[in-house]
Design a protein that fits this description.
Shape: globular
Number of domains: 1
CATH architecture: 3-Layer(aba) Sandwich
Number of helices: 8
Distance between the termini: 29 Å
């Protein structure tokens, strides 16, 4: 399984992966990795004008289009915005996702983020990485998957936690040569420009993404970067897979 180059970004909503780790996913795709992007919800609250069913349909299509930029696959677990719960049905669904995709590498939201949906999604992904290999946790169609994947928590939007404290990534990846690919993926989520303008006063959200990437790049003296922190608890892989796979574009930093 160590040679199975499959990466899964398991996020709360469509466009979360593109904002936070789209560049790293693009770099992995360049070196032969298979890419999967999953969301817990279809983004059903992401519109001022459209009802939940219609905006969900649109956003699933946008997310699939974004994944296709990397020849990737999109998955949706069909929970609802604002109601992502750490409950038995959602835990089983997330474990089943990991068993289906069989990733060697899993990206998740930061454990402390501005949105509770993100924090719960983070816990679900972390839990699924471990329990995907436990035979007595049953899921339909898919049996146990081992070993435990490498898990990295992406930086939250604006690089700060729910208290406004700067999150210090321990792995920073220079994404300068794929920033246009990351922007193209994010541009697939056209429905969100209007929504973000209404909800957050944020226009030109591709430029907002680039601004976040520039701030992260300042940490290592490059134009654009993405940051993350590796889960290093008991039972999870301990070496830095991103350093091994991406080489000199990856900068490991002390906590």
């Amino acid at each position: 399984m160590a040679d199975r180059k499959v990466a899964l970004a398991c996020m709360a909503h469509p466009d979360d992966a593109e904002f936070t780790c789209g560049g790293v996913l693009a770099l992995l795709h360049e070196v032969g990795w298979q890419i999967h992007i999953a969301t817990l919800t279809p983004g059903d609250c992401g519109s001022e004008r459209l009802g939940a069913a219609e905006i969900s349909r649109i956003r699933r299509e946008e997310a699939a289009h974004a994944a296709s930029v990397l020849d990737g696959t999109y998955h949706c677990l069909e929970r609802r915005d604002g109601f992502i719960a750490y409950d038995e049905p959602t835990i089983r669904a997330t474990v089943a996702l990991v068993r289906e995709v069989q990733p060697l590498l899993l990206f998740a939201h930061a454990p402390h983020d501005y949105l509770i949906d993100h924090e719960v999604a983070s816990s679900l992904a972390r839990n699924a990485a471990f329990f995907a290999g436990v035979p007595n946790l049953k899921t339909e169609r898919f049996g146990p998957f081992r070993p435990v994947p490498y898990v990295y928590y992406v930086d939250p939007v604006e690089g700060k936690d729910l208290f406004g404290t700067r999150v210090e990534p321990t792995t920073v990846v220079d994404i300068g040569r794929v920033i246009d690919v990351k922007a193209r993926m994010l541009a697939c989520h056209a429905s969100q420009r209007e929504w973000l303008l209404q909800q957050h006063g944020m226009d030109e959200y591709i430029e907002a993404m680039k601004a976040m990437s520039r701030r992260c790049g300042e940490l290592i003296g490059v134009d654009y970067a993405e940051g993350c922190r590796q889960h290093l608890g008991h039972g999870y892989p301990q070496d830095n897979l991103l350093v091994r796979e991406l080489g000199d574009v990856v900068h490991a930093r002390s906590a």
